[in-house]
DNA sequence: GTCTATACCACGATAGAC
DNA sequence: GTCTATCGTGGTATAGAC
């Protein structure tokens, strides 16, 4: 029971009017600002509506639920991150994929603290737990490829290694959120070094 | 303006009635169960009260706010964790402190999944951000001591190394929460190995 | 000292008027 | 496309029964 027209191509994407596009973009923008400033709980529908100059009900015309607003804002921030990381990884050779992944991800999150807070809050407060494997699988594949390229003995530890790296990145970025003077670039270098010793025994 | 008598020793700790002790313990117990089963949001005051067989207001007689209930449950779970880890670390030699820290912490969290969920939810949804340094400082000191004991060149990276290890532990434990078959012991071993290569170059 | 009853306000969400 | 009005729920405060 779609609340809105579908495009003629029938691809499932809704046709959006110009004002609707503008509103959605605006709502996503203020939601990112609010979540970054006051956390998930602080970003109430009333607060979002007030910053956008409309009412709660009007916000819920453009998005079905508050969770949908936050999800849209999350995906907006996330797509920027994965885009930059993917570009960096592709620019690097197969041997240096994991290092490029680590450095570009830490670098991006350092450059965009509001996006960082948004992504962390969304991951954290997400009710419907999305597949955790989505987080570590891309990195695990990079690690496997890099291991082959360096002629290391094939190990079945790619999953655990990726999980460790992912958790370490989260912790480094979180630390920078609390202490803006923390040197995340050096931390990323140390993490790359640790991984390097494992990949090139 | 204390709501309750203080002990004769004047040490600031309130004297608790037998029934009060029992109620607090019961409330902490049901809160841990609820948070573990349905997350922070699912553990409403009404749900806690219902499981305990009393009313919302009765819960708020024993604790000033919902946050206080959750905090008490969190501290209960946390004290068991730090107790076990501290014992394990003291039993190990100075060289093996970090390894004992990693293995005992991962092991404890594997044995007590409900406590794990409780601790993670509390860390995650905590409004008043308590000092993040409290998380990495003890491990950083173990790392420094172990580095000296092994005669490694003194490095100023203990903080970052501890942050990385802490984040990695969180990720390993979280993964086990979603996939109960995940081999956390092997993951802890890999993490120890990674650290070992750094400490003994 | 322990608890129930009750009322209050903020929040997310729905229904329907304009 | 946006509004007002309203509802259910959640956390909290107070009064008072026992």
Description of the molecule:
Chains A, B: Keywords: DNA-binding, Transcription, Transcription regulation. The structure is a homodimer of 201-residue chains. Chain A is mainly alpha-helical and 201 residues long. The first copy, chain A, has a single domain, classed as Tetracycline Repressor, domain 2 (Orthogonal Bundle), CATH 1.10.357. Chain A is 74% helix and 0% strand. The longest helix of chain A has 26 residues, at 66-91. In chain A, 35% of the residues are buried. Chain A binds chain B through residues 39, 41, 124-125, 127, 129, 132, 136, 157, 160-161, 163-172, 174-175, 178-179, 186-187, 190-191, 193-194, 197-198, and chain B through 39, 41, 124-125, 127, 129, 132, 136, 157, 160-161, 163-172, 174-175, 178-179, 186-187, 190-191, 193-194, 197-198.
| Poorly predicted runs of 5 or more residues of chain A | 1-12
**Based on the structure given, which CATH architecture of chain A is correct?**
Orthogonal Bundle
Q: Kindly provide the name of the CATH class of chain A.
A: Mainly Alpha
- Cα distance, first to last residue of chain A? 58 Å
Q: Give the amount of beta strand of chain A, in percent.
A: under 5%
How many helices of chain A?
9
Helix content range of chain A: over 70%
Mean pLDDT of chain A: 91
Of all chain pairs, the largest interface belongs to: A-B, 33 and 33 residues
Largest sheet of chain A: none
Apparent shape of chain A: elongated
State the CATH topology of chain A. Tetracycline Repressor, domain 2
Order of helices and strands of chain A: HHHHHHHHH
What's the CATH H-level superfamily name of chain A? Tetracycline Repressor, domain 2
Number of strands of chain A: 0
Keywords (chains A, B): DNA-binding, Transcription, Transcription regulation
Protein name (chains A, B): DNA-binding transcriptional regulator, AcrR family
GO molecular function (chains A, B): DNA-binding transcription factor activity; transcription cis-regulatory region binding
InterPro entries (chains A, B): Homeodomain-like_sf, HTH-type_TetR-like_transc_reg, HTH_TetR, Tet_transcr_reg_TetR-rel_C_sf
């Amino acid at each position: 029971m779609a609340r809105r027209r579908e495009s003629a191509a029938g691809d499932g994407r809704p046709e959006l009017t110009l004002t609707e596009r503008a509103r959605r973009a605006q709502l996503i923008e203020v939601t990112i600002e609010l979540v970054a400033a006051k956390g998930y709980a602080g970003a109430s529908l009333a607060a979002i509506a007030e910053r956008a100059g409309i009412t709660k009900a009007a916000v819920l015309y453009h998005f079905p639920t508050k969770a949908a607003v936050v999800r849209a804002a999350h995906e907006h921030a996330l797509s920027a991150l994965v885009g930059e990381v993917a570009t960096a990884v592709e620019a690097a050779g197969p041997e240096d994929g994991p290092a490029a992944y680590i450095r570009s991800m830490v670098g991006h999150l350092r450059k965009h603290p509001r996006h960082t807070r948004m992504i962390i809050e969304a991951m954290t407060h997400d009710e419907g737990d999305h597949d955790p494997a989505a987080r570590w699988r891309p990195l695990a594949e990079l690690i496997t490829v890099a291991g082959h390229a360096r002629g290391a003995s094939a190990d079945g530890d790619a999953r655990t290694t990726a999980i460790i790296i992912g958790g370490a990145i989260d912790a480094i970025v979180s630390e920078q959120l609390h202490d803006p003077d923390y040197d995340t670039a050096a931390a990323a270098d140390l993490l790359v070094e640790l991984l390097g010793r494992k990949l090139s025994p």
